[in-house]
Amino acid sequence: MKPSPPHRALKFLRWFCREDYIEEIEGDLTEVFEKQYEQSQTKARRKFTWSVIRYFRPEFIKSFKTSSSANSVAMFRHNFLLAFRQFKRYKGTFLINLVGLSSGLACALLIYLWVNDELNVDKFHEKDDRLYQVMQNFDRPNGVVTGDYTPALLAKALLSEIPEVENATLTNTIYQSNWAKGILSNKDNSINTKGILADSDYLNVFSYNLIQGDKDKVLADKNSIVISERLAKKMFNTSENIIGKALDWESEDLKKVFQVSGIFKNTPLNSTVAFDFILNYDILLDNNPESNEWYSDHAYTYLVLREGTDIRQFNDKIARFLSSKHPLRAKCTLFVQQYSKRYLHGKYENGKQVGDRIVYVRLFSIIALFILLIACINFMNLSSAQASRKMKEIGVKKAIGANRKALIIQFLSESILMSILSMMIAVLCVMLLLPQFNVITGKSLHFTLGTGDMLIMLSIVLFTGLVAGSYPAFYLSGFNPTSVLKGKPNSSLREQWVRKGLVIFQFSLSTIFIVCFLVISKQIELTQTKNLGYDQDNIISFQRHGALDVDDFEVFLSEVKNTPGVVSASNMSGNIIKQINLNVGYSWEGSTREDAEITFPSPEVNYAFIETLGIALKEGRSFSPEYSNETSKLVINEVAAKMIGFKDPIGRYVKRGSQEMQIIGVVKNFHYTSFHEIIKPVFFRFDPIGKTVLVKIKAGTERATIEHLKEIYEKFHPKNPFEFTFLDDDYQSLYEAENRVAILSKYFTIIAIIISCLGLFGLAAFTAERRTKEIGIRKILGASVFGIVRILTSDFTKTIVIAIFISLPISYFLAKNWLDNFAYRIDLQWWLFIGTGLMTLLIAWLTVGIQTIKAARINPTECLKDE
């Protein structure tokens, strides 16, 4: 049974007309429709529409205008229904847009989680907007050096003498970590842990919330210790009723019994300072009186400034504060930096804040935006390319009175609906990928659908939907209905260039991503393959604890060296990679007073240190037990020898203060810091009781040898666990940020390329479909498959080539700026950029080629069939 013609007609018209008007014209509609139904059903439906327009146009327009405001909800429902029908009808285009947008949104969400976490580090303190750390600039002959170490006396002095300071506190520096790193024990447990030393106002300045205890009193007593909830449960198996209980403390510099005076909540994950207990800072001052002098930098100083304090004026006020306290401070300038900004803005060069982590926050924010734009461009391009499919729909609607605003809303509704569907898939992807993303970034990010996250997601959805649908909405809604209904759409050269411009933008970004990824990878490869001047392979490093003497170290090292699998062993103070001890005041014949003020890395090492690391000796000798009084000898590197200016430095003397020290050897230059810095002068001194032990192990025996070393270590340090690292892992940690950027950039580059290729694939498929008859005619006239493929791909090739030429100069500029952060870097060779351009072109050809070859091989009789 054929359906009632008026039923289909009325179902269409009810979206736009009043119900009473439909009842009035129902009879006339039936008559018009039955006249046309004699032809095929498809043509009848089409011609019925034109009949309605011709027969009822004046009344229809009046009805549409009258009912538009009353039926706004129905109109939105209608728009979304049309969008769903559009998705269902053109499944290929729908899938391309869905995959592209969901991939872009997933990347944007992951980067948002990372960026949001970075921006909120140390922001949890209640007085964050007024909490500052005191910094100081040192004027040196080789430039201004910025440091965060200050005199221990500074906090109280600023609080009492500067009215803008509301509160002040101090803690120990990282170089005093041995005071607050050791063994806490009671009758039941013994734990290796670390904490901080702070004055009594610390918990009034920082928001580490107390569970038990009074924050004004918990640090008032030198015999008190405030512990974390985590440590309380480890030591007492509970955090209840432990105030006043005793804990034995044993570290390198201190052995003492403390009473628990308070318990604080565990330090948050977004805190740059992680500790499990707090001791009174006066303990350090009592045991090291020199640290309580104005010429000595032994503390970090933090201030809470009063409301409304002008930071510039405050910095000017305290700039010369130290110079009035001690003559040695004449070249020191104080200033403050907001504490929560130290994490992202903590790098200084020549006294000015530069770069640091904020660079990567901005970089990945831009990457997220660009990847999202690439995905949006796919939607724009495919929607505008398929405009002809919607022309008749637009023409009919405009002819019956639909205004441009209603059409814009319709197309934006379609793009927003696509964005919503894509966001749903993106959320699922983020939940699946987040654990691996945390591994890559070294964070513990969590994705929760809270109010804040929902608002951010809604904002991203609206932004994506509006951007993706903007061009199609304004472009399609601008069609002239007269031209459309006559079958002469207003296609223009401008439209084609807009579409090509969007493709150029997509592939320009993709090419830039590829170049930057290759440059980062090559630079990281350089850091891993370049000869560092010393050996990292199979060398482990670990720390000894407690008060040690020379005899103890000789016995310990003797047992270590006699362990099967140990090639050699030695020890040093500090760390050859992360922390080399510094000394000030070396002078030599011909040096100036300014030379004596330069700070030189000057690690203290034991016998066989140079041999264990495999540092090449250029001339002279290294430290040896065959010689006496090695403490007055020095081994320097080539840079130091060149700086001193001695043609033959062996046997010459330099002064460290009033002590004369003889140069006995010169080693070849080696990279003891990252490639960000040039190789600086090094003065090796002799000291047999450095706490850092380095052991070179025979390849293939690592596991068994380490087990033996663990037994020896536990014999000498029964309370301390054997914790070691491999030297090559320590070296890689210097490039932690770069390694993570390299890994993330690889994934983001791949995603950007995939999204761009999806869009190009869709355009190629659509182009081939629209030129089907042309292909059939060309094949009948003798065109080869290769010739047709060349014709179909020529426009795409030109577009991609333009994108490559635009992107390569930009890529060079960005790569050069990033490499400028390294003192030792790769050369930007021309082949890297040309190779990237060819790679991009090849990817585009492969993407387009799949569709063009398929279209070129179709049977011409199939091409010329009338639909």
TrEMBL record:
InterPro entries: ABC3_permease_C (IPR003838), MacB_PCD (IPR025857), Macrolide_Exporter_MacB (IPR050250), Permease_put_prefix (IPR047699). It is found in: Cell membrane. It is a multi-pass membrane protein. Residues 95-320, 513-681 form the MacB-like periplasmic core domain. The keyword tRNA processing does not apply. Coiled coil: none annotated. Keywords: Cell membrane, Membrane, Transmembrane, Transmembrane helix. Its main location: membrane. The chain crosses the membrane at residues 94-115, 359-382, 407-434, 454-476, 497-520, 747-768, 780-808, 828-848. Pfam families: FtsX, MacB_PCD. This is ABC transporter permease. The lineage of its organism: Bacteria, Pseudomonadati, Bacteroidota, Cytophagia, Cytophagales.
